[in-house]
């Protein structure tokens, strides 16, 4: 048996009664052993299996043993080797120095959710995160990477939200959360250059046959007359009259300002 000292290596913690093991690594095995048993005594060990065993049977139910000594740069690689080889039942994470694959209990999920919600109620923190995010997206490279990631995600599964519907309760929550909050672009008209870019993009998009269902087609005179009658009927409804009134008040176009004869 290798004597425990202040050197790097791979270790295992074994539950004597069941034989279940936990694999770990450290650049200082002596200190790591002390940290494990200190956390267990204080009932704050991150591994719930080891903590339950210690709570029930005490320190004597566990053994800390060195499996292999190695250099500091090899600890992660060797730890992963033993995790793959021995398949330890007490390792919640199956990847060395990672939480990938770890599953939280429903109770822990609920507690984590409450902690995060309470944390985000802090106005100073929210303002700090808002400024940090805004500053981050000022970088054109960052914006491009984000755009590419969104596009790639959509192309990978374009129908991921097809048929998805919010429940009535979720719709109500969304509605309540947005009440009293002004639209993000309210009162901020597009600049002339932005309008020109939007117009150019729209025209380019409509020149592609796949994007334009009316590409190369024209309405017949009969269809045009039906559309005119439909619009005329709609303008006579209450919603149509409200819309016409708003257009007259807000749109400087002389056509919209014309009064009915």
The second-level CATH architecture of the domain at 9-103 is: 3-Layer(aba) Sandwich
Averaging pLDDT over every residue, what do you get? Answer: 83
Question: At the fourth CATH level, what is the homologous superfamily of the domain at 9-103?
Answer: GIY-YIG endonuclease
Using only C-alpha atoms, the radius of gyration works out to 32 Å
Order of SSEs, N→C? Answer: EEHHEHHHHHHHHH
Query: How many beta-strand segments?
Result: 3
Characterization of the model:
With 261 residues, the protein is mostly helical. Among the domains are: 9-103, GIY-YIG endonuclease (3-Layer(aba) Sandwich); 105-139; 220-261, no CATH class. The protein contains eleven helices and three strands. The protein has helices spanning 29-41, 48-57, 75-86, 106-120, 123-136, 140-156, 168-178, 192-206, 221-235, 238-250, 254-257; strands spanning 9-15, 21-26, 62-69. It has a three-stranded antiparallel β-sheet with strand order 2-1-3. A hairpin with a 5-residue loop joins strand 1 (9-15) and strand 2.
Brief digest:
This protein has 261 residues and is mainly alpha-helical.
List keywords for this structure.
GIY-YIG endonuclease; 261 residues; mainly alpha; single chain; 3-stranded antiparallel β-sheet; elongated
Give the topology, please:
Elements: E1 9-15, E2 21-26, H1 29-41, H2 48-57, E3 62-69, H3 75-86, H4 106-120, H5 123-136, H6 140-156, H7 168-178, H8 192-206, H9 221-235, H10 238-250, H11 254-257
Antiparallel strand pairs: 1-2, 1-3
